[in-house]
Structures are given as C-alpha cells and as structure tokens.
Specification:
Blueprint: H1 2-15, E1 24-32, E2 39-48, E3 55-67, E4 70-84, E5 93-98, E6 105-111, E7 115-119, E8 133-137, E9 143-146, E10 153-156, E11 161-168, E12 174-178, E13 185-187, E14 192-194, E15 204-212, E16 216-226, E17 236-244
Parallel strand pairs: 9-11, 10-17
Antiparallel strand pairs: 1-2, 1-8, 2-3, 3-4, 4-5, 5-6, 6-7, 7-8, 11-15, 12-16, 13-15, 14-15, 16-17
Length: 245
Amino acid sequence: MLLRVLALAIAAALAGCVTITSSSIGTFAGFLPCADCAGILSELHLYVEQPSGRPARYELTETYLGSMDGDRSIGTAGQWTTLRGSAKDADATVLQLDLGRIDAVKNFLRVGDDELRLIDRNRREILSAAPHSLHRVSELPAVTLVETDSGQTLEVDRGQRVFVVLGANRTTGFDWALETAGSVLTRLGDPVYARGATPLGAGGTTLWLFAAKASGKQELRFEYRRASQRDSPAARTLSYIVSVR
C-alpha cells in the first residue's frame, strides 16, 4: 500500500506543473544525480513562440527521492535559450534554462533529437559514471507498476513513461535486478534506491523508469537477490508484460 501511495504521489507531482499548449516542442524525463538524496526524478517541458519558433519558456519538475526529509517536488518555470558551443565542441548546441536567480542557470547539451545531457555552468562535461541525461518522452502521463501488478499486461502508447516501484532493503544485501532486455522499452537511466526518512535498516524503494520506444511487447522480469549469489534461486521474482500500441 505504501508503495502505491508513493507511486501516486510521484505521478501527481509530475502532472501538477504540466501546461500543454500548441507551442510545446518536447518533453524530456529521466533521473539526474543528487548530492544529498538518492536521485532527482526530472521532467522538462520546452515551449517556443508561435509562429516564430523562438525559444520561449520551460517548465521543470524535480522530485528529490530519498532525501532526509522524504520525497519532495520542486517546480520551476522560466525562460530558456539556445547557445552555440560547449567547452569541448564549438559547434555544439546547448539549451540554457534561466532559473530566475542571479547567475543561476542549468545547461543541457543537445545530443541528437531525443537526448539532453546535463553539463556544468561553464558548459563542460560532468565527469561522473552516473547518468546525466533526460530523454524525449510523450506528454502522456506516466503509468506505474508495483509488486502487486506482477503477472499483468500493461498497455501504453509510444513515448509513454513506465515506472516500476518495488520495495527493497539493501542493508540485507538484497536488491532488485532487471533480468530481461528488449528494444520495445528503453531504460531512462540507472535505477534509484530511495531510503528516505525511514529508520536505519528499515529498507526503502527501488525505482525504475522506462520509455516506450517502439510498438510491440516486452517482458520486464525482476529478481530479488544478493549480487554475490547470482547462481542461487532468487528470493522473489516479478514479471510484467508491457504492450506498446
């Protein structure tokens, strides 16, 4: 029940700041690193002026997962613009968000049409193994799967996001592992383990984020086990079928 409440809270937080207009040119989502929490679930909407196509405003929702104060969401809106050149590539395209404070900006390197990669304020690459990218998704609301949904088939549209929210306790050495792969769903970043404000040793939640990239069906099978016991039977196994229209 608690996991379902968490899933609904995340979905509500993301939906609360969305204003869809004819000037929308894209929605991008993913997990970004966080210094004092498990990860930042980020959703960015970009808009342009019509009919000129000039950059106009953005809406950014950031949900800080597993912070000391629990999960919390912050919505930011403002102006964005495009800049030419990064510290590494003079021809690169950089999207810059004005955060509304003196010298406060957020820079994203454009990688193709479907990826925005976070870079630092000096337009340099962030040297870290953690994912720093947001990926293009549809403006349809995200759907969520929890443990009690195992065995079910979920129907979604192309571009729609799929959350998987599973209870876990890494203090025991156990965690969920994704045991299947395919081309229908694309994983948007690494899974995030959010312990939040729960007492030490009480466990937390592992969250996965996918985007439906192609029509067809794909199984998502998760196994709960210790990483050091790959040859032993899993303590628990969950399976979902996602059908993309």
